């Protein structure tokens, strides 16, 4: 069996993307500015890729950007797809498989996340070590295409340990305070209740967001080495002093974190 949907998407890109790319990146809410440093060769709106839904979330441009960044040829999803947009997990997996089809074997995922850890503050960056998939969804449900990956992929090293160590070392050399922790992925789009946030803390997570876990499962399935970062955008401790969350605040703090992440990625990309 072959994935007809993936084949159709890649056919719609034929002749438009050039040589294979070295590294793929998925940019989260408010982090699309990371694409500004790319020496752009091609920009393809999602609507021009057969079968790929159009991104509707605030702060997501919804376009595939191909070019050079820090000396590497990259493909960036400038804006991602979310379950809360009414999309299926297979829609989100399709975006990841397209990046793999462009030749990349390393995937860098970024997101905006709330801090469950009270020591984290907005504007900081967290290196994701592991995740909790609490969306109730999995992109691998249904028939498996063995040409893409195993029926039962192992997730014990979903976030590549070697790449994580490299990121930590580069952050130290650059003087960047890099937090580390577990990311809890929920469906959204509502922000979590205080009780939910306390539950997530008790579950061992340090940050919470509405993306990433579906993409990472799909990425591991098709053979990507994954490195992922959260830009901390709001306090989500669930305490009595919890302030009201707004998307405007989230996007503003994500932009701040994105500037720090851009410095780190400029150092990392030549070594990926």
TrEMBL record:
A purine D-ribonucleoside binds at residues 192, 234. Residues 23-269 form the Nucleoside phosphorylase domain. GO terms for cellular component: cytoplasm. GO terms for molecular function: purine-nucleoside phosphorylase activity. Keywords: Glycosyltransferase, Transferase. It comes from the Bacteria. It is an enzyme of class 2 (transferase). Pathway: Purine metabolism; purine nucleoside salvage. GO terms for biological process: nucleoside metabolic process. InterPro entries: Nucleoside_phosphorylase_d, Nucleoside_phosphorylase_sf, Purine_phosphorylase. Pfam families: PNP_UDP_1. Belongs to the PNP/MTAP phosphorylase family. The purine nucleoside phosphorylases catalyze the phosphorolytic breakdown of the N-glycosidic bond in the beta-(deoxy)ribonucleoside molecules, with the formation of the corresponding free purine bases and pentose-1-phosphate. This is Purine nucleoside phosphorylase.
